[in-house]
Design a protein that fits this description.
alpha/beta; 15 helices
């Protein structure tokens, strides 16, 4: 039997056991059709994994067995060469409608594909399951059994499944296709590597390429987050007023524009991260309780991700004071001094209700007697930490979201309730000092200092993202 040049594995099993979900998760392809109805897959479909323009491995989604008893009887009676058993079966049943599914699902095996048998371990083992396992054993190809856990709570049948599968397969793995992390996908590929010595070099290359590709995605995410920090730290909007009576209305308009701009920058960064993880067709649904669903400038976002109510008010009061000082300074004691005195009070009050005063608002006199109002840039590091925390949380969702997953996340309860704190809140003083330097350089537009600080903060961020991707947001309990 000639083996394919590219490692190829046919994913087989009974209908509606999760074969398509396994294919979708392993290939990171959300175009794989997944249906709750059995028998939807009628023909084999090949799904290649391409990295850097090169196909490295291929998985074949197949129809489910329909005639396992009669097929096993034929396999048991076969007297020809062992490595020709699937080809002989196909030749003998090609025009028999009763065996149409078996002819189709066994075709990749006749071409030398390895076997991944998928079974739902949340239900009892049946006689027909044993028949299907025995057919695949008699096919004589490298084979792995994947016990898919469609219902996590039902683990009472798992040992029975594993004990039976060990009789028929080279290796057995428990794998939740809807929740498998990157690390679990790599472990499954490692299992495939060990079931077939001939493909070990090729599969080692596949696994190395997967790991390099994952590092590239994290590198890209690091760059995206740091660019978001710099752009947000320096962003400001301004407008001219005919006289000071227009200042409050102009400032209000600019604050809305400023918040919309920062929200847009954050959304663009999140989309860039999502694209790196190949979620093209289906949006990654965040849990309903996720803080990333909250408005960036909402009081809840700020409180959950780091600021107490007192800190919220203090930050706002400082912002309002700066506004007032600027007015007096620029206009040289003009009657707007009264507005200056109110600045701190108004700033503190609005911050207690939200986070609008996290940015500076300045009013400048223009040469012809007009007044220019400027909102931004961000005036304190906490705002940037909140942006970073939300990006890290978004990454945790996207990187852990299996491509076969279609149902929305559930609200956690009890002991699995999320911890209400930002990821950066766990950083020590040294790390926060490094980011403090980076944020300060960004606000000043000091590109030399930014370049000097970037390697250190990039390394910190890379290690943080790696830690998140190993466990996913559910284990880390961050939302």
């Amino acid at each position: 039997m000639n083996r394919p040049d590219i490692p190829t594995f046919a994913v087989l099993g009974h209908p509606n056991e999760g074969k398509s979900s396994v294919v979708s998760t392993l290939t990171e392809d959300d175009s794989v059709r997944i249906s709750p109805l059995p028998g939807e897959t009628r023909v084999c479909r090949r799904y290649p994994v391409v990295i850097d323009g090169r196909e490295l491995i291929r998985f074949v989604d197949t129809p489910g067995f329909q005639q396992p008893r009669k097929t096993l009887e034929w396999f048991s009676r076969h007297e020809g060469p062992a490595d020709a058993i699937t080809a002989d079966f196909i030749a003998g049943h090609r025009h028999d409608a009763d065996f149409a599914h078996e002819v189709e699902l066994l075709s990749p095996l006749a071409e030398g594909a390895g076997v991944i048998f998928v079974a739902d371990g949340s239900r009892p083992l049946r006689r027909v399951d044993v028949m299907e396992m025995e057919i695949l054993r008699l096919a004589g190809l490298p084979r792995l059994a994947v016990i898919n856990t469609k219902e996590r709570a039902r683990g009472e049948f798992m040992e029975e499944w594993k004990n039976e599968a060990r009789k028929h397969f080279n290796s057995v793995r428990v794998f939740d296709a809807h929740r498998a992390t990157y690390a679990e996908r790599i472990e499954l590929l490692e299992s495939l590597r060990h079931i077939d010595p001939e493909w070990q070099p090729a599969l080692k290359e596949v696994i190395d390429a997967f790991r390099q590709d994952w590092r590239r995605r994290i590198d890209h995410t690091v760059s995206t987050i740091l660019e978001l920090m710099v752009t947000s730290a320096r962003h400001a909007v301004d407008a001219a007023c005919a006289d000071e009576s227009e200042v409050p209305r102009t400032r209000n308009r600019l604050e809305h524009q400023y918040r919309a701009d920062i929200n847009r920058l954050e959304k663009e960064a999140h989309q860039s991260i999502r694209q790196q993880f190949k979620h093209h067709l289906f949006d990654v649904e965040l849990p309903p309780h996720s803080i990333v669903n909250e408005d960036l400038f909402s009081k809840k976002s700020w409180r959950v991700l780091g600021l107490s109510q007192w800190q919220l008010a203090a930050a706002g009061a400082a912002g309002g004071g700066i506004v007032g000082a600027k007015i007096d300074l620029v206009l040289g004691g003009h009657s707007l001094g009264a507005f200056a005195a109110l600045g701190g009070l108004l700033g503190g009050g609005s911050a207690a209700l939200g986070a609008k005063q996290a940015v500076t608002s300045r009013v400048r006199g223009l040469p012809l007697g007009r007044v220019r109002v400027e909102v931004g840039p961000i005036k304190n590091d906490q705002m940037l930490y909140i942006l970073m925390d939300r990006a890290l949380i978004y990454f945790s969702h996207v990187s852990a979201w299996a491509h076969s997953r279609r149902e929305p996340p559930r609200q956690p309860d009890g002991e699995n309730a999320p911890v209400k704190a930002g990821i950066t809140a766990r950083w020590d003083a040294f790390i926060k000092k490094q980011f403090g330097h980076y944020f300060a350089a960004a606000r000043k537009g000091d590109w030399t200092a930014l370049s000097a600080a970037r390697p250190t903060v990039s390394d910190i961020l890379f290690r943080t993202l790696q830690e998140i991707s190993k466990g996913g947001f559910e284990r880390l309990q961050i939302t």
